[in-house]
């Protein structure tokens, strides 16, 4: 038993909204726990409770054995938090931001500067360190945010939607950073709206909906429960699309969808081994695939399977959200 985060039966209401409606969470030391869910599912609320920023109405949570309410001081010393909305000061430079936060964490002047330098270097922001943050790209900001949360070498790091709004390259940079801190022994709790992100980073995934945990397990467990991936295939010669579609239909026993203009054929598959069978059939028919992939189910597909309703409906039920960090 080495659960560094353990929460049981967390409840939190805001007026009529049950932001957390009986949530259990556990994270093992040195792993990444992914908390996956659509807008308004309660992810940020859970992070704020675990970060001692918000008291739960009921239930309890421990971080490394310390109670987040009674032992908030000890908990704060163990955690680093990167909020959903950038927490660095736009007008200050990267270096100034990190030095300021280090000073707030009781670093001496010299140590604060040294730590800032170290982190800027590690996040490849050394050159940008002397520029105001308002001139940074989204990816650079997120990296600076992440650097800021690592100043006091926390054992537990909460990352609230660390890559929302980033382009694929910046997202990959953040992913690499997360892998790096975990390799050094930290435990990461990461919230995300992307199944792909949870799949790429998380050892365990907890799926939230309406303040409840609706599923948990490894990425493979979840994929197994969802029971399908999507096969995407396109013939390099468009006139062969009909023949390709017929082969795919025959192999899967499903009716593929064909996108007229692109000739992209998609179909749900339950057995990934089907791909090799398809490759053989295409080969026999001398059809060259310009594109052939198994795609992860999207969050929408996960939701539809787990809850029986699409994400949009879940969101429509929500009251408009203010700027809740
Ligand atoms: N301070 C608050 N006051 C009122 N309502 C709140 C507050 N914080 C959260 N809520 C509500 O609680 C619910 C859960 O919000 P939360 O921010 O935890 O969701 P989330 O999963 O982080 O969503 P997102 O993906 O949009 O960040 C939402 O309906 C939200 O509007
Ligand atoms: Mg949130």
TrEMBL record:
Q: Which compartments is it annotated to reside in?
A: Cell membrane
| Membrane topology qualifier | Peripheral membrane protein
Q: Which UniProt keywords apply?
A: Antibiotic resistance, ATP-binding, Cell membrane, Membrane, Nucleotide-binding, Translocase, Transport
Main subcellular location of this protein, as a coarse class: membrane
The protein's matches in InterPro entries, at most eight in alphabetical order, are given as: AAA+_ATPase, ABC_transporter-like_ATP-bd, ABC_transporter-like_CS, ABC_transporter_ATP-binding, DrrA, P-loop_NTPase
What does the similarity note say?
A: Belongs to the ABC transporter superfamily. Drug exporter-1 (DrugE1) (TC 3.A.1.105) family.
- According to UniProt, the name of this protein is ATP-binding cassette domain-containing protein
């Amino acid at each position: 038993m080495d659960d560094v985060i353990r929460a049981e039966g967390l409840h939190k209401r805001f007026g009529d909204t049950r932001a957390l409606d009986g949530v259990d969470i556990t994270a093992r030391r040195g792993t990444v726990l992914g908390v996956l869910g659509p807008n308004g599912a309660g992810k940020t609320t859970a992070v704020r409770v675990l970060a001692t920023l918000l008291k739960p109405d009921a239930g309890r949570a421990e971080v490394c054995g310390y109670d987040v309410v009674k032992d908030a001081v000890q908990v704060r010393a163990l955690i680093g938090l990167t909020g959903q909305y950038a927490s660095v000061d736009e007008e200050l430079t990267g270096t100034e931001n990190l030095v300021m936060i280090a000073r707030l964490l009781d670093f001496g002047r010299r140590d604060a500067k040294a730590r800032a330098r170290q982190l800027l270097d590690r996040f490849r922001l050394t050159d940008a360190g002397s520029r105001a943050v308002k001139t940074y790209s989204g990816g650079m900001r997120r990296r600076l945010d992440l650097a800021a949360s690592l100043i006091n070498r926390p054992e537990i790091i909460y990352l609230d939607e660390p890559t929302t709004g980033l382009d694929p390259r910046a997202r990959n940079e953040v992913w690499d950073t997360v892998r790096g801190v975990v390799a050094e022994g930290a435990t990461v709790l990461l919230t995300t709206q992307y199944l792909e992100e949870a799949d790429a980073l998380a050892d365990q995934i907890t799926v939230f909906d309406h303040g409840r945990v609706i599923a948990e397990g490894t990425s493979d467990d979840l994929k197994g429960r969802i029971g399908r991936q999507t096969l995407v295939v396109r013939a390099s010669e468009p006139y062969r699309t009909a023949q390709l579609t017929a082969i795919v239909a025959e192999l899967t026993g499903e009716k593929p969808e064909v996108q007229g203009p692109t000739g992209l054929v998609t179909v749900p598959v339950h057995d990934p081994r089907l791909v090799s069978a398809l490759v053989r059939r295409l080969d026999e028919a001398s059809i060259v695939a310009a594109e052939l992939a198994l795609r992860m189910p999207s969050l929408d597909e996960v939701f539809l399977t787990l809850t029986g309703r699409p994400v949009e409906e879940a969101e429509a039920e929500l009251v408009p959200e203010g700027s809740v960090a």
